[in-house]
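Side project, low priority. Logging it here so it doesn't get lost.
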Amino acid sequence: MSRIVRIHEYGDVSVLRIEDVAVPAPAADEVQIGVKAIGINRAEVMFRNHAYLQEAEFPSRLGYEAAGTVVTVGADVTGFAEGEAVSVFPPLDIARWGTYGEVANVPARLVVKHPAALSFEEAAAVWMQYVTAWGALVEQAKLGEGDFVIVTAASSSVGLAAFQIARMVGATVIATTRTGAKRQALIDAGAHHVVATGEEDLVARVMEITDGQGARVVLDPVGGPSFEPLTESMACGGILLQYGALSGEPTPFPLFSVLSKSLTLKGYLYSEIVSDDAALDRAKAFIVAGLESGALKPQIASAEWVGNRRWNLTFKTGQLLALPEGDLGAPALVKFAQLDGMHRLIGGKPIAIDMRVPDRAYLRCADGPCPKQMALNGRAQ
């Protein structure tokens, strides 16, 4: 029996259960992994809340990202040996191949021998963000040297990955954020320019930065009212990749900009890359090369096992996340992902997030009290 995180209904973090489950042997084309670290992202929170593209079949596993060691392989699998360190491209079926647990069976084509320099924690944080950004920017937009790219929701994991990938191919990054509070953090993370859309005119700033040409590429997971000014900021013949709908508000169709500039507006899904073997191989080659060269750097700086009871995670931004002891750690990490989705904590104002007390999140900011609305059933300090 292995300890596996499952849900029996949709809901908030309270529906997560850690259960003893008999995990079957891997199918012929699968690899069974002993999980050492998992990644957390908004897609899993949306899945749990019944706000995702896929329906759950209860009881359902969940979890897209993991790293660990090979336990055993299916009958048709070659190239992997027991005990090898590997990580996982997020699969197409979050319920069938969920990674939250001590053991996970995943398709062999999605298993990667990551660079040895990566810790398990770093390896688990790699593939969703970098594949999403690579697929949009390199595979579809053909981003290259001399291009300008606007990255919205810039402090998200995909946004930060987009900075690094754009720099790898010689492009210039224009990051957007709502206020100037994250400006320096975004510059430190790799953005060349930062536009605070709540304080500056996006179109005017982009035209100033690009000498009146506009940005050829836009990567946006938000939509909503910001859609029109984004297209007004684009260059003739530009392409906008829409990979999310975080706004929740109606997204107007920018007819005049599309017609006058011959723009391409494209919906983009991570699954477009994972379902295409050739594209998947290109993604692996690009990302592994970037990781080995140091051009791509996951945002987790370190993970500390404290007193043999709980984890402290330190992000590349220098921010510390303190998790509770024992079985409460996994639900707390999912709750943190939800909180980050609401308030963009990574790369933001808090310097420490303390979640050691169940159902509480204590935030500490460097330049004074954290905004009270940041606290989720907890307290801002």
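Brief comment: The chain has eleven helices and 20 strands.
Revisit when time allows.
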